[in-house]
Amino acid sequence: MVFSLTKSSSRQREIIEVVLGNGWDFMKSLLTGGKADKPQIPPPEVFRNILVELGPFYVKLGQLLSTRPDLLPPKYIETLTDLQANVPTVPWFEIEQTLSQELSRPLSEIFQEINPNPVAAGSIAQIHRAVLKDGRAVALKVQRPGIDQIVAQDIVLIKGIAELAALTEIGQDYDVVALAKDFTQAVKAELDFRTEAGYTDQLRRNLAKSRWFDQQKLTIPEINWDLTTRKLLVMEWLDGKPLLEGDIPSKKQRQAISTILFRAFFQQIFVDGFFHADPHPGNIFYLDNGRVALIDCGMVGRLDPRTQKLLTEMLLAIVDIDAQSCAQLTLELSEESPNVNISRLEANYDKLLRKYYDQSLVQLNFSEVIYEILQVARKNKVKLPGNLGLYAKSLANLEGVARNFNPEVNLLDEIKPLITDIFRRQLIGDTPFQTMFRTVLDLKTMSLRSPRQVDVILDRLSSETLQWNLRIKDFDGLRRSIDDSANRLSFSIVVGSLIMGAAIVSTSPNRQVLILNDILFAFATLLGLWLIISILRSGRLK
Description:
disordered N terminus, alpha+beta, about 60% helix, four-stranded mixed sheet, five-stranded antiparallel sheet
């Protein structure tokens, strides 16, 4: 494992230098041959600096880690949430070369003009404004030249880092090697801009048929599929500013925009099951025409109907300060939690929720409570699906933006009109007749099977042939231990009896009988020695 990180290559040496330069004590001891204490992940700021210095791939990895509050403590999530790569912009001639390679025609035949100065630059791509021949303004998201080779190289190295992280406290509780695989697959998916284009179109279609808000007030940029390729994303240009930078003086306008945002995201989460997972302030725009826009749809989350139902119930349990329901719902949401102490989990939730008991619903920060619930689950070794991290991050970002934009916003007031509709949908679905028909068929099946099953049970009870098959975990081991103890006790009794018999025989004056005494005593000695040796070899002297 460590060998894979120390092979002689410039990139691997660079990683080691960055790690040592940032003073991660465990790695410093490990790589210099010293004795290392129990490994821990670096402090939040050190971890952030290491990721930034390692480059775009690790920055993206840090951004993905910030979506997993079920894995990392709150300080790490907070530090990684605003992680941005400190990367210089790519010179125009390189961008122009990429555009020429991706498009089948000369640029002059497609665009009236392209602004060579980027309006934004990130770890994977940078954005340029352009105007098509038909006069439409578009945004060009162009992949940084060579980023795919850098990512491919770092994906090989990340395996060794994941194996090293598997020794840490968090790595002992979670399969960090599998997590690293999931993260690297997510990064590779972001390198294909056609995937992001598909996500963007899907969100546009879903929100265009909402009955919870005026669709004309919310927009998502249209994709130009004729020009979009793996390394180039061409979409509608939207004139506006980030929401928190826009000039919106009217209190009524702010309240209306807050309502639109909450309703749009609750539709995505609890109705569509497909949601924008990164609604930070830079991805929510207030446009010059008064509409709200969601941009950068590369990170999305998905929820199946069962998870949607459980998360709805979790929100209600939080409002009711119901620790028992929170514990039960957490276990229902979990992927695998074989050794969870349910009483302790419930007690932890009770302690967590009690501090919100005297707070009004206006003061209650739901996203903060959900983050803390995920932390309690992590501490109790409950493994939750990764999409819950995206759900929590999306809700936290949304609520944070809304509170900064409109400090008087109340999440419960915003979603209260929607709760009835959500429960109606979960109860009878969008097609009541189909749901009713399926329910009638299930009842018919149950009605046909139940009498026969009851008759079989009664028949077995009357004939005394009813049997119960019970499987107790680790029962075989307990049975073997009891059998071993019983056998040793039996041998001890036999040995004692032989010794007592030999002692009684030794009192006889008959010489032939004395020979029997010697035989009995020798046999008892051999059995006693065998018994002692078997106990010593078992390693259990107590």
